[in-house]
Amino acid sequence: MKITIIGGTGLIGRRLAARLREEGHDVVAAARSTGVNTISGEGLAEALEGADVVVDASNSGYGDAADMRRFFAASSDNILAAARAASVGHFIALSAVGAGTLKGGYFQAKRDQEERVLGAGVPFTIIRSTPFFEFVYKIVDASGEGDRMPLAPVTMQPVAADDVVAALADLVTEAPANDIVEIAGPDTFGLADLALEILTANEDPRWISVDPDALYFGAHFDGEPLICNRPRLAPTRFDDWLREWIAFA
Question: Among candidates 4, 245, 11, which has minimal Cα distance to 140?
Answer without folding.
Answer: 245
